[in-house]
Amino acid sequence: HFEIVKSLATVSHRDIVDCIEELNTVSRSFTDRAGKQLRFIIKRGSDGTIVWKATIRIRCLKINTNTNVIESARLLTLRQFVVIYKEIIERVSTLSSPQEEESCIANSPERSSASRRDELTASAFFPMSDKTELDDEDTENECCVCMDRKACLMLSCCHEFCEICIDNWTKDGLHSNCPLCRTLVSGADDTWVLTDKTDQRDYASEVRGYLVGIADRADDPQS
């Protein structure tokens, strides 16, 4: 995950704002059957310091669009936002086949320009040169400890582990950090379960469930 770390070092505040706007646009297209959707917004005052990359917090809100009520929320660090951004954009990108994209671009020059803008926005975090590495699923999902079994859990530091290795690390109750970088892991909110790729026909419902479910992982809805 070196590229994520490198992106964190070079990303600008404008890039963050653009990516938040992009996720909000995407989220509006994936309102679930109950009328719930996600909205991302920078927490007021969290990005006003010189070291804003360390202090910034992005609020992820689950909103009931029928009542305009915020049902739950969670605060994301910059690193957590990057991970979620990457996950959402990758999942949404699978909903359109390359043939469909080419057809849309050919029939609409405006869509072509919009697509180029989207690529520039995404490239602020994930350069096009990373696609080859991301396509190598076996390498991407390899456990960082044993380097043998497939990883099924990812911590907030973006390191991935198989269930056996992370269980061995935490079973004595003495370790509450990442085995590699020693980043503190406070609990379930700092852990993501890695899912296998599913049939493309299931992606639309999967993305809706994923998007709306993100905010439910907060312990304190008022955080």
From TrEMBL:
GO biological process, alphabetically ordered: protein autoubiquitination
Start and end residues of each RING-type domain: 143-182
The keyword Methyltransferase belongs to this UniProt entry's keyword annotation: no
GO-annotated molecular function: ubiquitin-protein transferase activity; zinc ion binding
SUPFAM superfamilies membership: RING/U-box
Keywords, alphabetical: Metal-binding, Zinc, Zinc-finger
CDD domains xrefs: RING-HC_RNF141 (cd16545)
The protein, known as: RING finger protein 141
